[in-house]
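Help!! Second protein's tokens look totally different from the first
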Amino acid sequence: MCLWGVKCWGLSQEGWGRQPGLLLLLLLLLHLLLLCPQPVAARAGAKWPVTSVGGVAGAAAHLPCVAAHPRPGDTPILVVWYKDGARRPFYILDLREGEAREELIDPTLRDRLRVEPGGTRLTLDPARGPDTGTYKCRVDFNDSPTVSAIVTLTVYVVPSRMVVLDANSRPIQGGVLRSLTEGDALTLYCIASGGRPPPEVTWWKGTTLLSNRSVSVGEDGTLLASHEEGDDVVHTVGVGVGVRYVRTALIIPALTRDYAHANITCRASNNNITEPMSTTLYLELYTRPASVVIRPPTEPLVEGSQTRLECVAAGAYPSAVIVWEKTLAGRSTVLKATSLRLGEVTSSWLTLVPEAEDHGATLTCRAHNPNIPVHAATTSTALQITFAPRVTLRLGYNLQTRPVTEGEDVYFECEVASNPPPHAITWYKDGLEVTHNLRGGVLVSNNNLVLQMVRRTSAGNYTCAATNTLATTTSNIMVLDIKYLPVCVGGPQTVTVAEGEDVRLACRVDAKPEDDLRFTWYFNNTLDTVEVERHRIQVRPGLSFLDYTPRSSRDYGILSCWATNTVGTQADPCQFTVLEAGPPERVEDCQLVNHTGGTLEVRCSPGNDGGLPQWFVGRVYDATTHTLLDTLEEAVPRFQVGGLTPGQDYLITITAINEKGASEPEEIDAIRLKVAEKRMGEVSSVGVSPLVGVFIGLVGGFVGLLLLGVSLTLLRSYRCRCLRPTESGRDAGGVGPPSPTTKTTPTTPVHHPQSDPQAGPDVLISATLERVPSSSTTSRARVVSSYGGDDNTQDDTQSMAPPALWPSRMSSSV
């Protein structure tokens, strides 16, 4: 027997034998149907939890099963789902132990039904309108009684189409209503078709409700429902035959300025799950300017001084166009201005630099709406001009045709024409006043400014200002550009690199001009000085690169970079001290912090990394048996040790490692405090003075510390005899870092001798100790970007000698 037929489950008569679990499940379902023939609605006395959910047609709808039993540990064995009180379930999930998970799904829902593990939630994807109904979830447990739950599902069908018609039943195209004038009447109809339940159609202006007077019309034009009063004519143009729709009218008797440049929106919605369907119309409403006013300036008009006049036109919307005209001796000239629209007010600003000839001229402001050109408003005013100084700044005659070089004398001339004559002339550089300073080489003499022996810091923007009884006028800006020799940016650099590794050295200089720089590199190792071959040098604006690879110990020394421009060659070169990379130094200042009963934390200060990236390995030993308990590796010397036994003595070693070897280990004795002994029985009360107990405790503590010190001394002597060397390079048990890179340090370089291959950090003998050889891979070094100190092991005099003294070429290591 099959609930939906044998073929709907994909079973044949031969399939029953191959699927005994499915046959048992069907027999169990038949037994349930015989025991509980009543539909869901017949269980009048049942108190089942009810959940209401909503969904949208075309999207996923979720049906939760909230049936649960309060008994802990009792798991469900069977989950069954019904719809609308049907006796036959549309989904069954068998979860009995010892049986394979079996599912029975209604074939009509197989493509749309998804089930979460345990059958606690069903998902219909996509949901359809007929899916609306009441669903029952039934759960059977091993020991607990059967529990059921009810889920009410409502599937909403959103409206399918929306159209907006004008008063003549013509669709609005493009979403814009054009050529509207203030005071005109406006009538619009918004029609939404489709949707279940029928949608509510409303008109809005921003957040303001304009109209919700709507009617529901059937497929034959019959009025089904109405939300407006009075007689109404139903318009069915463009909606479609046989489609149910809802129509809402918007009637505005007279458009006011509030609708200028406004958006009105029609919305249709029948649920609170999805966004409402909407369409927006833009109202292009024209208004005329009502008034035009020229506001007088706050300061008198001064010749040569920039002044801004404002004209305000009110009442025009979207915006009024304002035109400025200047009439002098019967001739009118249109002036350029900028405008700003603020609501019904349009403001225009005219920037004017008046001249003496403008005195008495007529200035007119004209405002009009370009969409209503018939009407315009105008206003006029007469210009009253006062005279201020006219100032021009020039460079000295002999400096106007050639560039200024550092160390020359420069002088400026300030030409002033004013009425009345100026009573003060002030000089400025980059906006700051320049004063007379004889010792600094700055000479100010009324209309002249002299700069003696100019330096690169003298470059900038120079101006002069003349003041009379009317105003102060500032001259044009004169830019003083000074050319100077190249100088090294920063100081000497120190580079650590291993043999055979590449390092890119960047020689960066400050020069003017810098577009035609020429660079020369020299190498010095106290034995000889050679020039680097030019094809190995790369040049950029203000920068030179050199890729350097030391091949032997003789290739470590000082590289000097000289830059030359049209002014000359720099006085002091950029220097790079190349040192050989070595193993790191041992850590120091180790401390035990956060010392608790079962954990402790070790913090140390790292030593010199030997010019290569370093990492740190910590080992924890049993202080009595010298057994290696744990190995830790960190990028910084900070280790968190846990799982320690109270009362146990431990020994910790910290070792720094890089690609060139390992440092000597730093040893730390970590003595754990013993736990307090439990009192085994009741002690009878004895009349003893409290002071006697304190004295006994002090004496006992002193004796215990003495014995502990002796034990530690003997333990350390025994441990030292058990230490043995390890291989240099990577420490035992560690994991290697990335390929070595070049490191630049800001201090005097420290040379680290190469470690003996057989002399590594001391470790305790342990059966679990392994040695991991150091990696032999190398990679290209990084570009040097930081600078070191001034101390060098080579002869500074020889490394800084002029290029002419070093004619020889560099060896092949460069």
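Here's the second one for comparison:
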Amino acid sequence: MYSPFNHSENLSDQKMSLKLFSQLADKSHLYWAQKYHDLIADETDSNDNNNNNLNTTSDYDYDSSGDTDGDEDEEDNGCESQSFIDKISKLHSEGRDVNLTKNVKHINETFAVLNNVKTLLSNLFVFNEREKYKAIEFLSEIDFKISSQCMTSLVKVFKSIRNTEFWAIKMLDAMGSFPPSGFAEGVLADFGEYDECLDVKSPVDDKETQIRGQYCMMKVILPYPKLDNISDDNNLDEEIKLNDKFKAYDIDLQKLTLRTIVETLNIVSGTIYRMGICIPNTCTSTEIEDVINKLFEPITKLPVEIDKPSCVVRDAPVVLDSFEKFAITIFSLSILFVITSTFAEVYTNYNRSTIPQTKDDLIDTNKEQLLTSFSLIRNTSALFADTNGNWQALDTIRLLLIVYVFIAHLYIAATTLGLVTLKSLLTVVIPRMFVDKRYWFARNPLMVDALYSLSGFLISYGLLRKLDKTNGRFNYFQFIVQQWLRFTILGFSSLLFFYLFRFTGEGPFWYYAVQYNDGCKNPSQLFRILTFLNNFYEFRIETFHETCNLPLWFLSALMQFLIISPAFILLYWRRPNLGKQVLIGALIVTNIAAVLPYFILGVKPYLQILIHGAKLLSANANDSINWYHTYPNVQIHSYFIGIATGFIMKKGISMSVNQVRLCWIGSIIGIISVYVWQASFWGPGLTEPVISALLWHTLGKFIFAISFSWILFAICSGRGYYLNMILSWSGFRPLARLSFGIYLLHFLVIGHRIFDIKYTHVSNDRTMWRYIVIDLMCNVIIAYIFYILIEAPLSNIFRVIYDRKPVVVSNDKKQQFESSLANNNNPKVKDLNTYINVSKLTISVNGNVNKMSELSKL
């Protein structure tokens, strides 16, 4: 009831306001009542003095409220009351006759120019008393939900900006802008200056709290209808013809409809723009969001949101959760074990004879093996150790497949998850990633099928050889427990890196990376990883951030295949003919299983799911990703083809040179044709035919798996000599043995590439391949750390527990021993039988089981 008196421009009303608020006994309201009273009183006295001194009457007539029909202050206050254009015009006329020069006689003239700029800005953006009063009146009518501490800080920032204090100007300068540069070519964000904002500190004042910069990410929301409200509205399916407007960008928008626009807005929750803002650390994101929305939403009709996790203050206290503490503890213990084990190996080798004299000098006991299982020397040497046969080429093939997967994931993630960080969206990789033929390599999932075929081949051939050695004795329970322990320990160990991931980067978008890793702390996700059911997690875009280390779904499917595969392999070893028939039946059933979701559940195979991103919100599209990508029904036939290849490899077949050549030609044609077939589904305006897509998932993948399995068979059976020679190059050896860690941890590196960034950037083919090379090197380094701390020690310990062969030896010791035998200068070797007994020892060289050279070769 008192406010109308307080807001009046009539002096008598202001006197009443002062009287009323004095009776109210509220210091805050009384302060502003006194302020407004003095302001109106000063203006009234000024007008009266002007009229008396000039002995004239005003050209403006006052109405009953005391206001004027015009801007009476413009004549009174000179430049301060002029319009912006008037000020510019006056300053321009004053400086028109000044000689322009870039050189001056003295540094004082340089500072004079700078001072002129400062004065210019002050004159252009100064507010006169009436404008100040209007602003106060406008703001006082808005009910801001803001603390007194935050309000005090905001007022101090505004005053400091007006007084050109540098710390406050830096806070303003750190803000993002709209529109940003490059907006016409597609920019979805302006991050501003992240580090500049965090470095802001106001001068220390004993009376006031120091203000520090707080960086937050603000999202501008375009109000949008929910999909449930428009599902039956057929008018939304009408195409929007925008091709003429986008000819300069060479983009085909013939499939753009109102429905796709609505679906896309639902995917991004209406967010059309992100902007970095710098606010005082005494304010919360909720308070600033409330202020901005109440100030601007009534004008723009565009609400804004500020993600609380996005707000960062420099040197904020770090709080560790239980998962992070656990990860730090495990890594600390592992490093301690590595140091201790390395010293143990050095000590053991030092106390041995310089040249081994007997076979006992070559042998390490199980105790010694266990002591050196974490040794940096032993495990690093194992990376470079040579292996016999053609199997080294298979390690290189696995490495190349994983590198391929890494490249594809980097392309896809950079153009989907990292879309906000990119500039020139309409002119570079983004609009062409899912339509241009040259990006076929990043859109094809066949490399995962190749990894399953390779796994099936290795487990089949390896288990058949073991059955030959043990005469058919096989402990199924021990086999499953051993594989479960190995995969579980390695899988959970990879999560330790993700638990500490948030401490390895920073930036405006970094909180998204942290959010995507929170899924690794979800009990339900951890249970799925422990039980190897992670690949049955139902994909939903709205819960995508709840996933945990996506490569673990491959381990889950592989473990499921390992559980069932021994039955087929044992049956084949004991009854080969029946085993062949059962395996053929399994291949037929698994091929049909790949397309059963369509015939039973009506789920279509969307191969272009990333082109039609809006489809991700539909249940059918989510089910399509699950049934045709992550669930095991779509990969198991590739695994069984690998098992069949292992059967053929174990049995051995004779082939003529022409037959081998035909198989090679057929294999190459098969792989290329399946790739071309899949690429034909992608393109502007294309919709994958259902029948063709179903055939690709059955016949196409079958042809690819057969073609790829031939390459494996040919290399291991000596029918791919030149290819085997290339793939067996020693330079591939250490990288190939790190490939498992590269695969498990490659999303850490991709996450850094996407989210650890402080400015929007342009992504084209050159930058992408530069990123690939750099990120692969980083991935190898992280994989080496994983190998030294976790993978190699685990393998060594398992070897001691399950193999129980106390026969570890170093390469140099073995070579010294063989040399002494060859030169016949070993006094302890008295006859041929002693040498034969030693040479027949099965020894483990740096973690790899080998046979010593046969006597006949010497």
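Reply: Different proteins will give different token patterns, so don't panic. The radius of gyration is 37 Å.
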